[in-house]
Each structure stands twice: as C-alpha cells, then as structure tokens.
C-alpha cells in the first residue's frame, strides 16, 4: 500500500527506543511537528519486547537501501542509515525440552487411573505447547524496574503518561547469601518478621535506616573511604553488611561511601509508596514504556510510521542535516534525533567497548517457592571475578508469560560472555534436569547489548543532529530520563519538559453568548484523579494484602 | 470567539465552591423537612426513604435519618409477618438494600458511628445474614486503616455472635502484627484472644513481642504487650534471664530509651526477690528518673514499695 508522508516537520526522530520516545513526547507536547519513524515493524528498538515466536526471528540487521538519486541536490552529500556497532551480539536461543509429546494418548489415560496420588500426573511441557502459547510471552530485551519515588515515576505522574500504562509491585527482594536465597529485609515490617536476623541485628538495621533517613551527617568523615568501611565501623554484622551493601544499595566492595549512602536512600525513600518493596514493573513488559510515550506524542499531533524504508540522510555543504530519504520521499526538518543504532557508521567515532550481558529463561517454577505468585528481584552479589547480577523473575500475573510458567531475566555488566558470566547463577538457582526443588530451564536465550552510554556520541555529529544512547545498566529509567531531558533542553531551550495538562474541572469552554447564567454553563466532567500511577489495576485485584497509604501489593504480591 | 478554553482563576473557583455549598444546604433542609413530615407508625413514604438514602450518602452522621430508616425496617418486618405468604425474599431484598446503603456510606466515611451501628442493627434483624461477607468487610476496612476502632469493635461483635475458631483469629492477629506492629488495636485484640494458655504460645508470643521491641524500641504499643505477656505466671526463669540479657544488649544500642529499663524493672520485680534484686531496682529507678524527670514522683513511688 503506497502512502505518502508529509514532507516537512520541525523534528524527525528515527528509532523508537526509550530516550527517543521521551523526546518525541516532549517535543510534540510543546507543539512541535514531530515525525517519529522506525524501519522496524515494532516499537521499542533495542528496548522492545517480543513474544516467543518473534524473538526467534530477531535478525541482525537490515539491508542498506540505495537512495533514489533524483531527490538529492548536487551540492549535497548522503550517508546511509544503520550501523552494526549497537546491534545485539552473540544472540542465541536453546530449547531444553522435547519438541513434542512422545507418549501416545491412551497410555496417559491408563496411568491416570492407576495412580492414587493426589496430584494429577502432569503432561510434560514440550516446545510445541510453549509455542502454542507463544503470544502470551512478552520478552523484554531491556527489562527495568521503577523506583516508586524515582524520577521516572514522578515524570509519569506529572506528565499524565501514567494513564497509558499499568504496573505491578515487585513483591519481594532476594539476595544470595552464604549459599542460599534469602529475603532482604527492607521495610520495618520485613525486619520485624524476618527470623534469620537476630533481634540485635534488627535493631542495628533499623538504626542505620533511620540515621540515613534523618540525614545524619557522620558519613562526611568517610569521603574517600568505601561504603563497606562505613558499614563495618557502624558495627554491622557480616550478614547485615551483605544485605545493605549488595542488595539494598546495590553496590560493590569498591563503592565509595557517599555513593553507597545515596543508593541506600534511593531504595529506602521508595518504600511504602506502592508496596513493601520500592519497585514497580510495567505490566506486559518494559516494551510498553516506549509505547506510552509514543502515545502521548501522537495525542499531541506526532506522526508515527513503522516499517519504513529508510535509506539515507542528506547534508548540505555546511554539514547541516537537510533531509531524510524514506522510500521515494525526501522529508526535511530542522532537527534530527536518532537512536545510536540507526546512525550512519561515519557518525560513530568511538565504538562501544563495554557490553550488557543478558540472559532470559523460561522456567517451570519459582526460584523460591511460596504460596502465592511473587514478582521477584534477586540481587546476586559479585562473586569470583564476576559482576553483580540483577535477576528479575516474572510470573503470569505480570502479563509476560502463560500460567504456571516463569520468565527470568538476568542482567549484568559483561566480563567475558553472557553464558560464562551467568554460569554461577545458573548452577546455583536452576537445574537442567527434573529437580524437585530448583526450577528447570525450559528455554534459554543469551545475548549482549553494546553499552552506548558512556560513549561520546557528539563529536563528529552535525549540529542539528543528536544521537540517543541505548539501554544502560541502571535498574530504573532515571539515567534515560536525564539524558532525554538534556537533549530536549539543548534542542528547545527555555521550554517546559512534558508539562501536565490542566485539570478538566478548571476548564470552561466559552460559547457564543457571553452572558449565560450558571445553569447553562458548560463544564467538562471532572476526570478521576490521575495522580496515582495507574495500578488501580492492581488495586482491583486485592487479596488479603494490606495497604499502607496508597496501594500496596495487591493480589499476588 | 467561539469555543475558547479558559481556565478558572482561584477567585472564580472559590465563588463556584460557595455556590455549590449553598445549593447543598438548601437541598438538605428541604429533604429533612419532607422526611420528617411523612413519619407514620404504620406505613412509610417511599420517596422519603429514597431521599433519606441520598442525604445519608452525603452525610452519614445524620442520626435522625438512620433511626428513621430503622423505623421503616421495623414496619417492613411487621408487614412481612402479617403477610401469610412464607416468602421472605422481599424482606431479605430490603435488608440487603439497607446493607448496601451502609456500605456506600462507609466508603465515604469509614468512621461514622451511625453507619456501623445501623449495619450491625440490620444484621441482628436479618433473617439470613451472611457473616462471612461481614468478616471480609471487616478485613478490608482494617487493611485500609488499622486504627479504626469501629472496625475492630464490629469484628468483636461478629466474633461473639457467630463464634469463630480461635486458631483462625490467632492467625489473623499474627498477620496484622506482621504487617504493622505499631498498633495498640492489633496487640489489644491479640490479648483478648486468650491465647496464652500453654507454654508454647507463651514462648511464641514472647519471641514475637521481642522482635517488635527490638525493631522499634520507641514504639510503646509493643512494650505494653510485653508487660502483659510477662505478667503471665507461666514465664520460666530461663526465659526471664534470656530476656534480661537481650535487654541489656539493647540498652547499649539505645541508652536513651526508658522503656528498656522499665521492662527490666518488670522482670526483676516478678517472682522471688533475691537480695540483689532490690539493689538493681534502685539502680534502674535512678536511671529512669534521669531519663524521664517529669515522672520522678511516679518512679519514687514505685520504689517505695521495696
């Protein structure tokens, strides 16, 4: 179907990653004419999420198209879009279960009649059965959790984008301590109820939390010392140090005191707002987040087009961006923003040298079994030369996998290769065979994401062009938001970043006659309070979990 | 110009609010007048009943209207007995309507005496009350605000009415404590459940309350419960010594907390007073007077007994 896009915009954005999408929403919101396009047939780019079928079809890249020469003026130069520096590396997927059921039907029936056990004999899970449910999976390339009082959630609320997405609370935070999985006591009631911590340790932990909360300044003496040293001097026991250092502040032995304290405060500040843990997870996967921003952009007039045949960029002889060639059209704009992976290779002066190691598993039970389904964050400490790993375990209530299965994401700063870097986690937490206690990995996927965040993406790039970095190692989107804000204020200084729309109660539409009396005045129906992040979804599913001010963990924690 | 959007100024907002309030006031006055005019011993006016529901939803504290509704309910009950047809569907439907109204009112004000009392009154007259649903309602409101004494009282009333298993209630109580132990209501409820009837539960509760006081020594509700537990005759000497040692450790961490010392006093005072117990008590009370000079008189009195 041939259709034509308009050929002139204020800003063109190529790529639908998170940073690009935030900028798109912000520009559209202040009235700029935005064209937001992608050569992919899906939203999200390197931050997208895929069902089980689509993830097997992820191909490494795209053909370079030749631009029709009649669109280019003689004194202009072109650069072909797309480079190989930032695409996923070492991508591999494996099945660990048989393809199809090997036993014929009637044998099963006989067994059922014979067994006297209470449990029905379970049908073995096969590749075919998972593929059949393939659409129920939403596998993120770059899964993230959101701090309940973090910059990102505040942005969602202040810009009203919150109503475009739904969230669930992370219901427990675990760590690996002394060869076992342990729950991290984060809130006061956790500390109280935890029976692995002695009463004196409970007191110490609470004292530390309260001291940090009250802005106790004694850590100023620890300017060049590590957070670990600070905690040791506070006479915390080794277990407590493990909980605070590796889990709550997500630091390492080398992290400096001030940073460690800031990390701890970040964690503690977000407690109790939406749940017992500080974290939220976007329902249906983190890929939904880019779409929420794109939705706002479209609401304010942004034009969206996926699957576009983007070929090259046109520059004039003063090296200013002039136009984009998309299919047979030449589209111009004042500014061009694009994801780093879409940029012409000539613009990438320093290729990525560090990588984010990733693994995704489909498993048959939780790493720590419990009565109800949990959304688990496991903070695995650094071990044997490997970096700390963030492990997120999602159940069916998150909308990312079918019933009775779990989706597990592992994220770490790459040392050698994803398989190598996660080997110890896999050995300790999972089994490849039938093991009553540990979950079995039914399907695994490993890949590396080149980390574009510490790179210089400005040098050698023309003045009206901006490159956006891709996924980073931060657990939340704070860094991404900061970068998007910085890029936005460079492009449009002195403008507001995603301001909130006025409350409908205060809006009156003036009609033709000015002297109407009150009864005839048209007043828009007041909207519900959109201040809360839209997990009224989670509120409705409430079970017997209690609430602290707002909505706490609902239903399954 | 046609169709422009204008945002109200604060002054305009205030004026608008005042107008709305006046409207409400007029509506209220008219409503009350009408309802009271139609009161009758043998029958009732359906419009008035509906009107009373509207007014109560806005303001559940109009006792008069709740009582008016009670009168109506009694009339309905009488009518139902007089109707020989043994079909109480209509009556039940009527009761359910009342319950629904109270629920609506509780949503807007969970602390209204009128709503809770009306609900309980209806349940008492209800021919087929669903007590499980009442429990669930209680749970919901306790979750929303665990200090809502109306809700706790309501729970006690229901428990007495239907008699529920002790184990269940103990489990409920433990759960509430786990969620938030800074709550006199939860601890008090626990103490009314008569759970300290064997050594095991005494030991368990001792551990539970110890966890609480260590996690947060400033929270007084847990100390009160500890005192109650310690007053149980079944506390063994070993338990007392262990607790005393733990409290000594806690005191090192929290030298400013008077409750720790008071707890030590409770422990030492009980049972046989060995010779050095009196010396200890003297020391403790002296410390207490230093920490809490406003209660000096009280501490001196406590010590006089010895």
UniProtKB/TrEMBL annotation, chain A:
Xref: Pfam families: GDI, RAE1_2_domI_C
Superkingdom, natural source: Eukaryota
TM regions (residue ranges): none
GO MF entry, a single one: GTPase activator activity
Keyword Nucleus part of the UniProt annotation: no
Main localization category: cytoplasm
Keyword list, A-Z: Cytoplasm, GTPase activation
Residue spans of biased composition, Basic and acidic residues class: 109-127, 522-557
SUPFAM superfamilies assigned: FAD-linked reductases, C-terminal domain, FAD/NAD(P)-binding domain
Keyword Transmembrane (UniProt): no
RAE1/2 domain: residues covered: 356-472
Region: Disordered, residue numbers: 97-127, 495-557
Comp. bias regions, Acidic residues: 504-521
GO BP annotations, alphabetical order: intracellular protein transport; small GTPase-mediated signal transduction; vesicle-mediated transport
Localization, UniProt: Cytoplasm, Cytosol
GO CC annotations, alphabetized: cytosol; nucleus; Rab-protein geranylgeranyltransferase complex
Family, as annotated: Belongs to the Rab GDI family.
Function: Substrate-binding subunit (component A) of the Rab geranylgeranyltransferase (GGTase) complex. Binds unprenylated Rab proteins and presents the substrate peptide to the catalytic component B. The component A is thought to be regenerated by transferring its prenylated Rab back to the donor membrane.
Annotated protein name in UniProt: Rab proteins geranylgeranyltransferase component A
Organism: Zophobas morio
């Amino acid at each position: 179907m041939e259709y034509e896009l308009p050929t002139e915009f204020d800003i063109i954005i190529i790529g639908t990653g998170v940073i690009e999408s935030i900028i798109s929403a912000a520009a559209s919101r202040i009235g700029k004419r935005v064209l937001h396009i992608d050569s992919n047939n899906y939203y999200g780019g390197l931050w997208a999420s895929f069902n089980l079928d689509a993830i097997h079809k992820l191909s490494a890249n795209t053909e370079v198209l030749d631009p029709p020469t009649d669109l280019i003026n003689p004194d202009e130069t072109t650069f072909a879009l797309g480079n190989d520096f930032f695409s996923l590396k070492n991508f591999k997927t494996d099945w660990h279960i048989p393809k199809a059921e090997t036993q014929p039907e009637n044998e099963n029936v006989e067994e059922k009649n014979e067994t006297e056990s209470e449990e029905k004999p379970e049908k073995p899970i096969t590749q075919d059965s998972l593929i059949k449910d393939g659409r129920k999976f939403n596998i993120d390339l770059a899964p993230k959790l959101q701090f309940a009082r973090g910059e990102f959630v505040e942005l969602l609320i202040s810009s009203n984008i919150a109503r475009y997405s739904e969230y669930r609370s992370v219901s427990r935070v675990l760590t690996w301590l002394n060869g076992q999985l342990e729950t991290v006591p984060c809130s006061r009631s956790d500390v109280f109820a935890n029976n692995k911590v002695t009463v004196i340790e409970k007191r110490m932990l609470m004292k530390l939390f309260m001291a940090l909360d009250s802005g106790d300044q004694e850590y100023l003496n620890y300017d060049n010392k590590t957070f670990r040293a600070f905690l040791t001097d506070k006479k915390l026991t080794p277990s407590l140090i493990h909980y605070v250092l590796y889990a709550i502040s997500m630091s390492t032995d080398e992290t400096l005191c001030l940073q460690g304290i800031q990390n701890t405060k970040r964690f503690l500040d977000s407690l109790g707002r939406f749940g017992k843990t500080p974290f939220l997870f976007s329902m249906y996967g983190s890929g939904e987040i880019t779409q929420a921003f794109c939705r706002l952009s479209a609401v304010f007039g942004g034009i969206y087009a996926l699957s576009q045949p983007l070929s090259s960029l046109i520059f004039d002889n003063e090296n200013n961006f002039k136009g984009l060639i998309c299919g047979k059209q030449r589209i111009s704009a004042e500014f061009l923003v694009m994801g780093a992976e879409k940029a012409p290779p000539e613009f990438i002066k320093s290729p990525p040298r560090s990588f984010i190691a990733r693994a995704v598993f489909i498993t048959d039970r939780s790493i720590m079994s419990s009565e109800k389904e949990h959304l688990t964050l496991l903070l695995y400490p650094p071990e044997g030369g490997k970096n700390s790993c963030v492990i997120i375990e999602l159940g069916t209530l998150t909308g990312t996998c079918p019933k009775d299965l779990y989706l597990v994401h592992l994220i770490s700063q790459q040392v050698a290769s994803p398989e190598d870097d996660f080997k110890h986690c896999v050995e300790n937490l999972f089994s490849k065979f039938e093991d009553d206690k540990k979950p079995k990995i039914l399907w695994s996927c490993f890949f590396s994401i080149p980390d574009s965040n510490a790179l210089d993406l400005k040098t050698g790039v023309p003045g009206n062009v901006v490159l956006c970095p891709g996924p980073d190692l931060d657990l939340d989107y704070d860094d991404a938001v900061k970068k998007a804000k910085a890029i936005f204020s460079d492009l449009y200084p002195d403008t507001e970043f995603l301001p909130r729309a006025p409350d409908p109660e205060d809006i009156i539409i003036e009609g033709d006659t000015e002297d109407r009396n009150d009864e005839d005045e048209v007043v828009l129906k007041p909207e519900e309070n959109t201040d809360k992040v839209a997990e009224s979804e989670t509120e409705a599913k409430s079970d017997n979990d209690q609430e602290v001010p707002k909505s706490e963990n609902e239903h399954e924690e | 110009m046609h169709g422009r959007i204008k945002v109200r100024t604060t002054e305009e907002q205030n004026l608008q609010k005042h107008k709305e309030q006046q409207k409400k006031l007029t509506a209220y006055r008219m409503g009350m007048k009408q309802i009271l005019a139609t009161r009758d011993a043998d029958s009732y006016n359906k419009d008035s009943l509906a009107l009373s529901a509207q007014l109560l939803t806005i303001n559940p504290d109009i006792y008069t209207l709740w009582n008016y509704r009670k009168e109506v309910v009694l009339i309905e009950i009488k009518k139902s007995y007089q109707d020989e047809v043994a079909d109480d569907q209509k009556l039940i439907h009527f009761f359910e309507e009342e319950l629904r109204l109270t629920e609506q009112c509780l949503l807007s004000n969970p602390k209204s005496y009128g709503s809770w009392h009306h609900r309980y009154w209806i349940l008492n007259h209800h021919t087929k009350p669903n007590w499980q649903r009442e429990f669930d309602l209680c749970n919901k409101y306790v979750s929303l605000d665990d200090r809502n004494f109306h809700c706790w009282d309501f729970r006690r009333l229901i428990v007495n009415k239907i008699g529920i298993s002790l184990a269940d209630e103990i489990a409920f109580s433990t759960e509430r404590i786990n969620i938030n132990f800074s709550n006199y209501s939860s601890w008090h409820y626990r103490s009314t459940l008569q759970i300290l009837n064997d050594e095991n539960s005494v030991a368990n509760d001792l551990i539970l309350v110890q966890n609480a006081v260590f996690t947060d020594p400033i929270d007084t509700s847990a100390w009160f419960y500890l005192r109650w537990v310690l007053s149980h005759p079944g506390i063994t000497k070993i338990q007392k010594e262990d607790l005393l040692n733990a409290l000594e450790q806690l005191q090192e961490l929290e030298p400013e907390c008077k409750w720790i010392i008071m707890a030590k006093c409770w422990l030492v005072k009980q049972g046989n007073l060995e010779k050095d117990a009196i010396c200890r008590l003297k020391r403790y009370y002296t410390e207490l007077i230093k920490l809490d000079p406003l209660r000096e008189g009280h501490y001196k009195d406590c010590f006089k007994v010895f």
